[in-house]
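Worked example 2:
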Amino acid sequence: MFVNREKELQLLCFAYESLKQGDRINVAVIGPRRIGKTELLLKFKENTKGIIPYLNLQRIGNEESFIFAYTRELIYEIYKFSGKFIEKSDLITWDDLLIASSKIGIEKEIKAIKSENKIDVLFEMQELALDKIRSKAVIILDEFQEVMHFKRFLETMRSITEKQENVAYFISGSAIRMMEEILSPKNPFFGQFRKIYLKGLPKEDTIKLAESLLKKKEIKITNSALNLIYDLTQGHPFYVISLCRRIFEDGWEKVNRRNLYYSFLTEVLTEKGDIYMHLDYVFNESLSRAYRGAVHRQILLILAQEEGLTLTQISNKLKKKTGEVSNYLKFLLKTDLIVRKNDRYYFRDKLMRFWLAKTYLGINAADLKREKLLEELIAELQEKYMKIKRELGLASEALVREKIRETLGIDFKPYRRGDTEFDGVVFNKKIHVLEIKWKNKPTTYRDVVHFIKKVELEFGNNVQMYFFSKNGFTEAAKKLCEKMNIQTFDWNDLF
């Protein structure tokens, strides 16, 4: 189901228009499973008139099958674009592809792909074929991380495609760490793709989605419960859709916070829930290639009970040497189940942590009807899952303070007195105060004014102020910082 991703959809359309005007832009769509990457790419394909082959690489077994499937999709899309009719069922063998290609004037190129059966020839002939029919194409390669199983694929593809004029590539991947590695400076595709990170929907869009789904079933819901849907799902479209479906199946005519919690816990902790099945699949699929599966599972269970542990703390709990445990953690980091922040380990998806901790204890649907247990689970949800933003915020603040200490030699410490908090304060001859904004949008004039007033109320005027904004500052905010002698930093200044 496609949900509101208008900004991302516009970017894909812009990249396609740029290709047609001679300015090629490749795009990489990255995000966790079921966040909406494939739906976004297919919506672009549905809305766009052009040659747009789509290939899901999870369904491709080896390099030979990749070459055939790629060529087949290309021919099929050229047929569609030219207004000619052909069924995919008519394109089963190489002979079928050769016959079809002869009818659109690219038989020579397809014959070369078949006879050589090599990746470099595929990309070279594709460019020649498109040149011959005077057309451009966007090639969508879903679950692109699977190409890592092919020998020297990235090097070969880059060497041929970097000079192409007729093709742009839209790739996507749910193995976040692996996709980032593919696009990192040490690999051939560094700097070749514009990255789109798909995350959960904003609160407003999450509520709109939930309202529309429940309205279709004539289910009423309180405003408080609608806000809770966002808190519980963090805007993940699959979680929102699954929860709304569960509400309907549970038979609620009107939804309040209490019965919403019940439906959510049923969806997450019992085998009849789609969210349960999703988390179970991700967990087991991620560990399926682990040589030391039992130890990896044990580490995850430890973090499910208490995350934010260091390597030494995990080693002590396992009663194993740090060198050995370090290797286990390196594997787990590659699975995307966990992340490392400031040398401490956390679950990437907090709902995965909650699910693992509770299903390991064998909680089932009958247990959820016990009032006391339900209360305990709701309390734990609020404590361990719904406070995710603050927890990650604290880790981000610590990272910025460390970078400023390395850059300026100022060792900021968090400050709290009563209801007043600052991200960093140092008391010297002059008081130094630090503000940190870890948001996906620039800091505004109003943000700076709020900081200045807060500082003046707490410390007066003999203060040197510092402002870190992950995504920079608006022009008005910059000018105010200059006027007030506030030293500013953004991501590029420190990282």
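The domain at 6-197 is CATH 3.40.50.300 (Rossmann fold). The chain has 22 helices and 14 strands.
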